[in-house]
Amino acid sequence: MIIWLNGTFGVGKTTTSKELAALLPDARVFDSETVGYMLRHVLNSVPVRDFQEWPPWRGLVVETAAQVLDFVGGVLVIPQSVLVEQYWEEIHAGLAKAGIPVRHFVLHTDPDTLAQRIEGDTVETGARQWRLDHIPRYQDALPWLRREAEVIDTTHLSPTQVAQTIAASVPS
Description:
Elements: E1 2-6, H1 13-23, E2 27-29, H2 33-40, H3 55-72, E3 75-79, H4 85-97, E4 102-108, H5 111-120, H6 128-133, H7 135-148, E5 150-153, H8 159-169
Parallel strand pairs: 1-3, 1-4, 2-3, 4-5
Helix pairs in contact: 1-8, 3-4
């Protein structure tokens, strides 16, 4: 099974994914951004704003997840913002074709709380403005995200509480 944690940048996906993996037996975090980093040196002649724009990224995320699950089984927790509906549809269809069940969650908070979290982040300080600049893209994606995922309002929850909420909703 895959538990996909979606949501805007800075909402707490990475922190929650670590907490969640610790709560679930045989769970591990798969950071699909590493697939994008791998492709950068190969596809640097194809300029994009975001590596998700490269079709090979989407296909390789599916293939990598399938290979990892075939090898070790268990649960993959993927903390990755996907704000383009077409990209999500491709990834979800690929995972379905591979026979991998997916639980798709969106971690959500109001824009003011999100901005406070981003401003207060002491780990990824270099990405602060970039994260703030992406809030409108997330807001634009919310209608389709609400259709495609289970939305968890994280405004008044810690990452541990969010992870516990998700873990409680996932069959063992």
